[in-house]
Predict the 3D structure of the following.
Amino acid sequence: MKTKRLMLFLMLALGALFLGACSGQPIANNWPGLAADAERAYLSTGTFIYAVDVKTGKEVWRYPAEADNNTLFYASPALTEDGRLLIGSVGHTHSFVSLDAATGKETWTEPFLGAKGAWVASPLVMGDAIYAPNTDGFLYILGMDGKQIAEPIELGGSLWSAPATDGSLLYVTSLDHHLHIIDPANGISSDPVDLGGALPDSPTVGDGGVYVGSFASTIEFVTPNGSHEVLAKASNWVWGTPALDGGTLYYADLSGNVYSLDLASGSQNWGVVQPDGPIAARPLVAGDRIYIATEEGTFYALNRDGQIVWEKETGGKIYTTLVLSGELILVAPYQAEFALAAYDTEGKQAWTFTPEN
Amino acid sequence: MNPWEFIIVQPLTNLLLWIYDILGHGPHMFGLAIILFTILIKVITWPLNAAQVKGAQAMQELQNDKEWQDIQKKYAKDREKLAQEQMRIYREKGINPFASCLPTLIQFPIIIGLYQAIIRAMAATPLDMLKLARTVYPFQNLENIIPLNSKFLWMNLGQPESIPVLGFALPTLAIIVALTTYVQTKLTMPATANPNDQTAAMSGMMSIYMPLLLGWFALNFASGISVYFITSNILGIVQYASTGRANWRNLLPGGSKKAPAKK
């Protein structure tokens, strides 16, 4: 009888383990977040945020000191002008912290724990306020000391991307298909603009409005008063924020097409440019090159005519947007042998970073 | 795509999203879709559940059988002989000892698949969203379907549920999950007059462990799963009650010791 009881207990324990292993919630997973300044790259991947010296590729610090499965980090950290790093957690506690970018030490007496959902989006600092969108559909407004300075604004849906600003208004995208235009002076949101598909990434601010890509496979231009028009269509979902460079808008889709839209004429600058896989990362424009990263783990340097200048394979999948630090291009592949790598503008690898246990 | 994804998770996820699409994507509709989805799966697996109930009853009746009780006493110290006699009596009475557990084993992948389908459909992170995009069949209009409206009644189906009561977060759904699991387990637990009945003893333990286990899941996991558990439990109770063999006395303290009324 004791054996049977033991067997029953083991069966239930195994069932619990099995179901736990199958679930999405406790082991939330995502691709890494990445930001950089002239001295360090900041990589958020799972239980740690790593600061990596961009000259040597060596770890400078990690946060927290000990891994905690309740505080997983995947959002790209936001860097402030006074040398701080702001980032929220995807883990159960939904903590939002401020770190000293030089040391990795917390700068608030306690983290902000007021959100009900995970932090997938980066926050935006504007003036003395931090605007932090959360997956619970609220835009939280914090002071630089981490305390709430205004009631959160309920926007609805799930907010996955950092707000954009033209200096006076905030533009916040939601997965519920809506772009929200908010006046930060009074917190008033005008009527949300329905763009017909989920909006997973931030808008790009241009002259007289913003450019937004969506799961409706379109690029739309939206003015501050909410009027909008479709500028171009794509073959599939447009995930990453379009990159604006002068009068040209670069964007890519999940079918792996890269587009170059001439805003003056509304026509495409080149025909089919299709690297080796779906593209979720934003295009990066630097100098006379456009850098594109694909799910196949390859990243490309294109010239202004859409021709491939060089390409590099990482061995993983790339969803994280490439980041420029000085003359180096930083790439953070998902499920690769290394977590972060730096390349010069000619595609020569400078270093790779793999966290040590 | 691995076979598990292709055969189980992908069809179930698409079925769930198809129901949600038909319902019109509005507030509360994903919760309703989970309920309808659970009902549909229960209807499809009804014959399996019925076979399980029948098999369990046959085994239980054997425990109260005078001849079997005599054999157990007679060969209490000779396990080999007891096993031989047990097989003989199974043959004579036409009992299949696997009839009660085989349907459960067949349903187990479906239950796990259901669970994964709900988690997949809710796409909590960008990576999950990409997975969902690859899971959905081309005929579904995913652009319109996502994001799923995860509001249902007072809860967000993508997050664990609780209601603030006097400054304390009361996990209402977890309590209902535990209660309905307890009721279902107790109702399906036949009374026995045999003090050596190991099946009844196992059922007794199940009636304690299962509510605790599922209640723990409901406490910590997305409340969409709790909606599935509650619907499934209620349908299980209804199904068993419809056979006329539900042992309502078991819900009362000491009720399990009394013999159920013969129908």
Summary: Chain B has a mean pLDDT of 81. Chain B touches chain A through 36 residues (CB under 8 Å). Chain B is about 65% helix and 5% strand. Residues 3-257 of chain B form one domain.
